[in-house]
Hints:
This protein is an alpha/beta fold. The chain contains six helices and eight strands.
Amino acid sequence: xxxxxxxxxxxxxxxxxxxxxxxxxxxxxxxxxxxxxxxxxxxxxxxxxxxxxxxxxxxxxxxxxxxxxxxxxxxxxxxxxxxxxxxxxxxxxxxxxxxxxxxxxxxxxxxxxxxxxxxxxxxxxxxxxxxxxxxxxxxxxxxxxxxxxxxxxxxxxxxxxxxxxxxxxxxxxxxxxxxxxxxxxxxxxxxxxxxxxxxxxxxxxx
Length: 206
Ligand SMILES: Nc1ncnc2c1ncn2[C@@H]1O[C@H](COP(=O)(O)OP(=O)(O)OP(=O)(O)O)[C@@H](O)[C@H]1O
Ligand SMILES: [Mg+2]
């Protein structure tokens, strides 16, 4: 499903700054329906790798393939749940979730139907018309998840989705995501720097 072939990434330093090599010869494969955790300390290049997997960032060497096709730009085949939510502050919860559907030119009725279903799925009933600053961090992360699921991607890329949440919310959201993924299995790449989470979270599906 996902093949990472000798991916390298060096950020150019620019005037007065050294180049920064972040990734060197990263090579792995993720099979269809597999859940892979990637663990590493802060600053080691996890987000950079995920952005490359999604086509948001070009590698400086090597290549990424999804179902045999080279990834060169973001596509609906994969979706990211970002570390810092990255919601549009000027859009409501519903509008944030519907954004990708509208870009993909889904008819308005289908957009509304899917958005309502996703709001139910992530437990945000009654908050569709709220703006991101009016909901909690855990709820914003649920919006991020709903937005990622909106186009029903084959591959879900999770970038420390629980990193900024308190322990209770984290556990609750872990259970909910595990429930959602066991009902609608996906190929998942899960980034964390927490060893327990890297092990516990995938096992929650079985
Ligand atoms: N656009 C960029 N330009 C230059 N350097 C960058 C850029 N993005 C990331 N870096 C650098 O690449 C390194 C890895 O960053 P990255 O965000 O991938 O780390 P991370 O493993 O996700 O860390 P964390 O666990 O703190 O989220 C860092 O040293 C960072 O400064
Ligand atoms: Mg990161």
